[in-house]
Design brief:
The protein has 297 residues and is α+β, with helices and mostly antiparallel strands. The protein is built from 6 helices and 16 strands.
């Protein structure tokens, strides 16, 4: 298998995707294929049908949207997320004011083992669920003076730019995903077994078809994907390591510098993200709300 060099395949939307101006929103693209800053909407207000439709369209086209200077409460963040579907609850992370809100409060005085002085690798959220999240909305409450950025990668471009022979090899393969290697590490054995009964490992295609755009997206990650099925241990490990590297190319990434009141909304079916751990022991406080998704195919 070859790595492939030469021109990148930089496709933002599928062939034949309808084009047209936005009437309610103003978009400022942040890169060639992923990420756009959105203005013209106040997230404190309920959305009318046209605004909701345009945000949905923008999310599909740009995969992650950034809303600046949004002075919203946790309840208003939840209300905005509900405009796009039923919300899910995370069984392992610290809750905010309500069960739908996850609160990340990190700094020198952090007591939560998942909120200490480290962050994470490239991943999509909750792929250990049978029906992983459609997307998420993350709000900055308090940010460090420097550092603490978040990056997103377009996993359709990541798939498109695999060598042809590697794409052929993974076509039709499935992988097993589990929470164990992240959230299960510090659990007592009894609790771990109890949570495994409730959230058993899930099997998903290595290459997922996006249910709305039809794009093929690479759907394995270094956090929750345990192994690729139908391969021996050595090949599974090699493939997972090689495919995980596809999120790391700057050509299909966007990087956000947070400020209080910044809100990011991303399509969890089409992206992976990485929260940069370069600010400890400074303080960073965020809240996230996730929208339920469907079973990958």
């Amino acid at each position: 298998m070859t790595w492939g060099v030469g021109p990148r395949r930089m496709q933002r939307v599928p062939e034949g995707w309808p084009d047209g101006d936005y009437e309610r929103l103003t978009l400022r693209p942040c890169s060639e294929v992923i990420g756009a800053e959105v203005s013209g909407v106040d997230l404190r207000d309920a959305l009318d049908d046209e605004s909701r439709s345009e945000i949905r369209r923008a999310l599909l086209e740009w995969k992650v949207l950034f809303f600046r200077d949004q002075d919203i409460t946790s309840a208003q963040q939840v209300a905005f997320a509900r405009e796009f579907g039923e919300l899910e609850q995370h069984p392992f992370l610290r809750q905010g004011d309500t069960a739908e809100v996850v609160r990340f409060e990190k700094g020198a005085d952090s007591a939560d083992p998942y909120n200490a002085g480290y962050e994470n690798g490239w991943h999509a959220d909750v792929t250990w669920r049978t029906e992983p999240a459609l997307g998420a909305i993350l709000r900055a409450i308090e940010v460090p003076p420097t550092g603490g950025d978040t990056l997103w990668a377009d996993m359709a471009c990541a798939y498109d730019n695999l060598p042809d022979d590697l794409r052929e090899r993974i076509d039709g393969l499935h992988a097993r995903h589990s929470f164990l290697h992240v959230f299960g590490l510090g659990m007592p054995a009894e609790q771990r077994e109890r949570m495994l009964e409730q959230y058993p490992p899930a099997e998903h295609p290595v290459v997922r078809t996006h249910p709305e755009t039809g794009r093929k997206t690479l759907y394995v990650n270094s956090f929750f994907t345990e192994r690729i099925l139908g391969c021996d241990d050595a090949e599974s490990e090699w493939l997972l390591d090689r495919l995980a590297q596809q999120a790391m190319h700057p050509e299909w990434q966007v990087r956000l510098r947070w400020a209080p009141g910044t809100v990011a909304m991303w399509d969890n079916r089409a992206t992976q993200h990485y929260a940069v751990s370069d600010y400890f022991p400074q303080r960073r406080v965020m809240e996230r709300v996730a929208i339920k998704g469907d079973r990958p195919y």
